[in-house]
Amino acid sequence: MRLIRLLIALLLTGFVVRPSDGMELDATPLGAVVIDAGHGGKDPGAVNRWGVREKDVTLAVARMLRDYVQRESDIPVFMTRDADVYLTLDERTQLANDHVGQAAGRRPSVFVSVHCNAAANVRAAGAETYVYNTTATDRRAARLATRENLGQDFSLDFIFADMRKRAIADLTTRFAVRVQDELVAGAHVEDRDVRGGPFYVLFFSAMPSVLVELGFLTNRDEQARLATVAGQRALAQAIGAAVLAFGTHDLEAWREAEGRDD
Ligand SMILES: [Zn+2]
Questions:
Q1: Positive or negative CA dihedral for 92, 93, 99, 103?
Q2: pLDDT at residue 158, rounded to an integer
Q3: Ligand 1 geometric centre to CA of 166 (Å)
Q4: Cα 216 to ligand 1 centroid, rounded to whole Å
Q5: Are 112 and 90 in contact (CB under 8 A)?
Q6: What is the distance in A from the centroid of ligand 1 to the CA of 162?
Q7: What is the pLDDT of residue 262?
Q8: Ligand 1 centroid vs 200 CA: distance in angstroms?
Q9: What predicted TM-score, i.e. pTM, was given to this entire model?
Q10: pLDDT tens track for 48-92
Q11: C-alpha angle with apex 182: 203 to 149, nearest 5 degrees?
Q12: How far is the CA of 98 from the centre of ligand 1 (A)?
């Protein structure tokens, strides 16, 4: 009897950790995953000569990525959009930051924005993963950022967001490398490497954030893969595997390197 009363007292004072406090999430220290399907609604993104629209590919892959993470883990998943709707880049980062604030507590979360590439050179192929960088890696990255940032200027909150980005730069790079490696090894896409560019959605999201260019809609073979369920699933599973590996391995390594115990 005394033991039971003690347990009740402990429960009331919050000493006993209940399963709802996150015990089921201990397999990964990742707080949440925010998946951002690029473009949508009145903004189709890139449209190729076969009529494949970037906004449809990104939504399909985003949904498969969500399903994969939910099936393979207990990590909370949020989508900035789950329909063919238009969202400003500001709304996307706002949604991401709000969701994560509620779900993750103090555990780091990740943000993945999904896109498709386009180029004048129809032979251009492969996937690339972007992290935020004030200056673009090269001229092509600068042009790409301009296209993906359409209709949104960097203005307010710049300094705070910049400080935040610097603090998690190392963690962000680890995540980007993991995503790119999984895409190349798991989905067998041509490796166009991890790059940096001034992408709006990466800058204002308050967590390690990457923008993935899955492949080129302007390349005949690659667009065929981007437009089919099997091709989309391979890409989604590769990114999903990267999210889980990041949560279980990279985050722990980063904590040790930083001497953190939170
Ligand atoms: Zn795009």
A1: positive
A2: 65
A3: 25
A4: 11
A5: no
A6: 23
A7: 60
A8: 12
A9: 0.82
A10: 999 999 999 999 999 999 999 999 999 999 999 999 999 999 899
A11: 25
A12: 23
**Residue with the larger pLDDT of the pair 185 and 1:** 185
Q: Give CA–CA dist 42/193, Å, rounded.
A: 31
| Centroid of ligand 1 to alpha carbon of 64 (angstroms) | 18
Q: Give alpha helix (H) positions in the chain.
A: 2-12, 54-72, 89-103, 139-148, 158-167, 169-186, 200-204, 220-226, 229-245, 251-258
Neighbours of ion ligand 1 (CB under 5 A): 38, 45, 115, 148
Span 203-235, pLDDT tens digits: 878 889 999 999 999 999 999 999 999 999 999
Separation of CA 248 and ligand 1 centre (Å): 29
Q: How far is CA 51 from CA 46, 55, 78, 226, in A?
A: 10, 12, 29, 12
Domains of the chain from N-terminus onward = 35-258 (3.40.630.40)
